[in-house]
Design goal:
The protein has helices spanning 2-25, 168-175, 183-188; strands at 26-32, 45-49, 63-66, 75-82, 87-91, 94-97, 100-101, 115-119, 124-128, 144-145, 149-158, 161-162, 201-204, 210-214. It is α+β, with helices and mostly antiparallel strands. The N and C termini lie far apart (53 Å).
Length: 215
């Protein structure tokens, strides 16, 4: 009888251990809103890797979940555009990082706004939504502190699949094509994608594993 209860205790302890391990390494989120369209849709379920940035720093192109400086009641999902010490400028529908135009195949349309050149403060990140003209992000004046980053978007649970990854080298390499494009094409985008209007975020759900994120 004692051996039976001992086995039960072992199973319970293992289950509790796995539960806390999952809580500290990955977390499920549901996207609310459309500011990350067309990359991430309203209602999409994502797994976020919470340990990825314990071994490295966020890079340009990473999609992250974080606590926004404008509100502690919700979590946001945005794409990293520039890191500490980088300069950012947005003009003519093109984003420039350190005076170099970057290619952004993931956006719905090029931004209709302008942002004067600014330097990203230390330990902070400049982020934008992929639905550029319908997103509350760093173009409105705020940046994300390193300590407020929850993790990197890793896997789409539903619809199932890996999330696309656009690193710095790919964006800068592709950006060499920009001067060859007609100005009108640069301003309005050279690909047509499905998108929706509005802003998006991540909100907390009442159970332990899944949260909502404002996109």
């Amino acid at each position: 009888m004692r051996a039976y209860f001992r086995q039960i205790m072992v199973v319970v302890l293992v289950a509790v251990g796995i539960f806390f391990l999952l809580q500290t390494t990955i977390q499920s989120f549901v996207v609310v809103g459309s500011s990350m369209m067309p990359s991430y849709e309203d209602g999409q379920r994502l797994l976020v890797n919470k340990v990825f940035y314990r071994f490295g720093e966020p890079e340009m192109g990473d999609v992250i979940v974080f606590h926004p400086p404008t509100s502690r009641r919700v979590d946001y999902i945005k794409r990293v555009i520039a890191g500490p010490g980088d300069t950012v400028e947005i003009k003519g529908g093109v984003v420039y990082v350190n005076d170099v135009a970057i290619s952004e195949p993931y956006i719905r349309a090029h931004p209709s706004y302008t942002v004067s050149q600014k330097r990203v403060p230390e330990n902070e990140y400049f982020v934008l939504g992929d639905n550029r003209n319908n997103s509350n992000d760093s173009h409105t004046g705020w940046t994300v502190e390193r300590e407020d980053i929850i993790g990197k978007v890793w896997i789409s649970i539903w619809p199932p699949g890996l999330t696309p990854d656009y690193n710095l080298e790919e964006q800068l390499a592709a950006a060499k094509l920009l001067p060859q494009l007609p100005q009108a094409e640069m301003n309005h985008g050279w690909s047509t994608v499905r998108a929706a209007m509005g802003n998006s975020c991540l909100l907390q759900l009442p159970h332990h594993f899944t949260h909502l994120i404002i996109s």
